[in-house]
Request: fold
Amino acid sequence: MSAAAAPAGTRVRVLIASEQAATRSGIRLALANEADCLESDDPDDAVAAAMDARADVYLVDFDPPRRAIRATAEITSALPDAVVVVMTRTVHDDEVLAAVRAGAAGYLAQTIDPDRLPHVIRGVLRGEAAIPRRLVRVMAEELRGRPGPRQLRLGERGRVVLTARESEVVDGLRQGLSTREMSGLLGISEVTVRRHVSAVHQKLGTASRAELAGLLADCASR
Reply:
């Protein structure tokens, strides 16, 4: 039985990733009756631990927040079904957007009432988004303008469907952006950018960026 489908009272497995020992201790205490907790104190180690732990929920809290967002992107890229919640000292509109783009299911302030944390864990496992109310409108406005899956017409080869993230990477390639530039623009690691570029190459049957650029120049997209 999956964690998401587990009945109330079933313990879940949570990975707490934070360089702050006090933060890890506080979360562990708050979840003592709800979850079995694992810990990591470094972003790179957190990604490796995620591969091994296969936890039900990942709570990621590193400063500055871009380290947490990058770790989130790495985890969700390797584990697409991973449920990640980013925690932060100060809530910012831009950060919640970057966190969601990286695949996070939630974005919370560290000041959250500890008594609420078990409810948050159960909520995200039910598919609910853990986002402060005041940021819901920000998310709605972002979704209105964010590109969704895209179809590329390849002449006699038919159509190829790209994911939203692959579409963003394709747009970056069209603009001649480097891997590092796309990494900064999209809020994901260079390794993740390369993974998406590789996926696009595989879908389009190209072997180099030059070949891909030539093919994209001839494609009519929608």
About this structure: Residues 1-6 have pLDDT under 50 and may be disordered. Residues 23 and 110 are 8 Å apart (CA to CA). The chain has ten helices and eight strands.
